[in-house]
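Q: Convert this sequence to structure tokens.
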Amino acid sequence: CGRPADLGGGAGSVDCDGDSKLLLFAVAGAWSRLPCRPRLWLGPMCAGRDGRYECSCPAGHGGKRCEAVLRLKRSAAETSPCPCLNGDDCTNFSGDGSEPKTTTVSPCIPTQKLPSDGGCTGGKDVWGFVWPNAANDETVDVPCPDGQERASRVCINGVWKAAQVLECDSTGFVETLTKAEEVFREDSRDLNVRLNETAEIMRSLLQLIQPREGLSHLPGDLNSTNAIASGVLTLLEDLLVPGSNVTSVPNQRIFAVFNTALHPNNAQGWMTLQDAKGGASKFLDNMERYGLYLSLVAPDTESRTVHQDDNFVIGVIRHSAMLNASSVTFPESLDELENTSYSAITAQISIPSTLLLDRKAEGGRYHGGHASHGLLLHASDNM
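A:
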């Protein structure tokens, strides 16, 4: 293509083969080349540092985008109002005309519209999504955290309807669930290795499920938490024998996941999940399974275990299945539930021994002549 004379402004172009043009920029005293491009490409262009270039977004959108070579077709171009996007991190092209290396994709964002009569004002919702202003009867959507799906919301008579977020997941939860499923599935490996990996999964899950300030975790993320907890309990139930207190998965870590997932901030997430998939009921089932597991690994008959924190209390007594009593009352002493969050608790529960034996028979996996009973409490009125 040749080389232009120094134009003084640091940019120039020369004709290439047929209908193409080579664009060059002077960077730090040297020429940086972009590949030859069709002459028909006449979009707005300005040279950035290091030979980068950027284009304006379409009318009605704000931000910046970078055009890729026209012959390239990216999947985002089919669905996005702003095709071939790279945000402010524009792509650098090499001088040999090779394909650009795509950096992070950042779509152009619709400019804020003032709500018309009957419209809805945008802002952050309980999930942390930032919604634009919307006209009456308008449906708007925003990308989910993992970028795979989109959440939507409709404005009716000036009032936002509940956002549709059930298809949304966060990347960290998806990755942790995928890893957990691999560990649960590969049953041919050494038991200690699997237990250590399970302990690491629970550590990662505990970090992910930490309360979001003023926000609820997404229903999909709570569902992933449920699935991981269920898999962990199944693994422990199947591999550990009654009376065995040797485990690489700390009981306190399992309890902490349950307690943290029940943070009041997540009330909306659990209610949404319950309406759609019965997820809250499944979570309660898993907490009951956890109590039964605690009784299984209890060192001896009549041993008592109580775990308590701000959102969750679970107490377990292991006793002989041959117990000759009309009923068992738990807790026997309220002192075992002393906690500032539970100072007002005065309830007791009496469970007929026949019901305990029936429950033991239903459980199947719990054997060795022992049964258990427990009291599970939650602090939040709306959960």
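Residues 1-112, 332-353, 359-383 have pLDDT under 50 and may be disordered.
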